[in-house]
Automatic annotation (TrEMBL):
<keyword id="KW-0804">Transcription</keyword>
<keyword id="KW-0805">Transcription regulation</keyword>
<dbReference type="InterPro" id="IPR018062">
    <property type="entry name" value="HTH_AraC-typ_CS"/>
</dbReference>
<protein>
    <recommendedName>
        <fullName>HTH araC/xylS-type domain-containing protein</fullName>
    </recommendedName>
</protein>
<dbReference type="InterPro" id="IPR009057">
    <property type="entry name" value="Homeodomain-like_sf"/>
</dbReference>
<dbReference type="InterPro" id="IPR018060">
    <property type="entry name" value="HTH_AraC"/>
</dbReference>
<dbReference type="GO" id="GO:0003700">
    <property type="term" value="F:DNA-binding transcription factor activity"/>
</dbReference>
<feature type="domain" description="HTH araC/xylS-type">
    <location>
        <begin position="219"/>
        <end position="314"/>
    </location>
</feature>
<keyword id="KW-0238">DNA-binding</keyword>
<dbReference type="GO" id="GO:0043565">
    <property type="term" value="F:sequence-specific DNA binding"/>
</dbReference>
<dbReference type="GO" id="GO:0005634">
    <property type="term" value="C:nucleus"/>
</dbReference>
<dbReference type="InterPro" id="IPR053142">
    <property type="entry name" value="PchR_regulatory_protein"/>
</dbReference>
<dbReference type="Pfam" id="PF12833">
    <property type="entry name" value="HTH_18"/>
</dbReference>
Length: 314
């Protein structure tokens, strides 16, 4: 990988406990490994800045790995067993049957620590931060990927990406060897990156679409209220007319305009009443009826509560 990374390309299989420090999994100059394992591990740089790895390891004694991880994005599918590590003082646990994403916006110290007699069978891809930057420069649609490594550390489960899980299983069970395996790993690893980008882009598009729909609903509600200030429709009537629930209508309006329907109607009525009074062509009672008050006394009370003085003072 182009960014400095402790992970090396290697492929080994231990039938009996073997030292992980001697297996070439990590760069000894930037990591310290204590513990042994049985089983297999393989890692291969399939594209500049993109490394695929998988393993099925059992740990007969406690495992501890101290390392420094670079700015990067790591997507991991845990098939069974478990894995955990501490990054920047935070414990991250990888659960079986789940996709996980670890994104680092900068180089951070990390420590893997697993108990004796534990095991882990999993697959993953490591993506260098500068490779993500290169992708984002080439195509603005891929900027959501770069945003994942924008700042600090982020650790999430990705349960809504079944396509990525399928790709990891195909990689883990790859029937190829040699050059064909390298091509297979490269194509499917890039496909994982593509699926993740599509997932993020689709998620953001859905959010934007939802925001636009909510804003359109609020704007139409406001238009209906403005046209009927003297007899404004109820929230329930508006909701039926616009084909949404009353709760959705109220939330959309409040989110867009920062006030409730009732507060908005009261404000618009008072501002219109003041404008009419300042024309000095209307009596107070006429203004009251015009803005929807059947009782001028109620209008005067509301006007004074809103402006701090009576309508006659205008």
């Amino acid at each position: 990988m182009r960014s400095i990374s402790p992970y090396l390309d290697t492929d080994f299989s231990f039938d009996s406990p073997g030292s992980l420090a001697d297996a070439g999994v990590l760069d000894a100059s930037s990591a310290r490994v204590m513990g042994s394992a049985t089983g297999h591990y393989r890692a291969q740089t399939v594209h500049s800045g993109l490394q695929y790895f998988d393993c099925n390891l059992q740990f007969p004694e406690p495992l501890r790995i101290d390392k420094v991880l670079p700015q990067s994005l790591c997507i991991v599918q845990v098939f069974d067993g478990a894995w955990q590590h501490t990054v920047d003082g935070r414990l991250n646990s990888y659960a079986p049957g789940q996709l996980h994403m670890l994104s680092l916006g900068e180089s951070l110290e990390a420590q893997d620590q697993l108990p004796a007699n534990s095991h882990a069978r999993m697959a993953g891809v490591r993506i260098a931060g500068d490779y993500l930057q290169e992708l984002a420069r080439e195509d603005a649609q891929l900027k959501p990927l770069l945003a994942l490594v924008a700042d600090g550390m982020r650790f999430d489960q990705l349960p809504q990406c079944p396509a990525v899980s399928r790709l990891f299983r195909q990689l883990y069970l790859s029937p190829y060897t040699g050059g064909l395996r390298r091509l297979h790993c490269e194509s499917l690893s890039l496909a994982i990156l593509l699926e993740l980008a599509s997932h993020l882009i689709g998620h953001r598009s859905a959010e934007k679409s939802q925001d636009r729909g909510r804003r359109d609903l609020a704007i139409e509600t406001r238009r209906q209220l403005d046209e009927n200030l003297n007899a404004p429709p109820t929230a329930a009537a508006l909701a039926r007319q616009l084909g949404v629930s009353e709760t959705t209508l109220r939330r959309a309006f409040s989110h867009e305009y920062g006030r409730s329907l009732l507060q908005y109607v009261r404000q618009q009525r008072m501002e219109l009443a003041r404008a009419l009074l300042l024309e000095r062509r209307w009596q107070v009672s006429q203004v009251a009826y015009h803005v929807g008050y059947a009782n001028p006394a109620n209008f005067c009370h509301a006007y004074k509560a809103y402006f701090g003085h009576s309508p006659g003072a205008e």
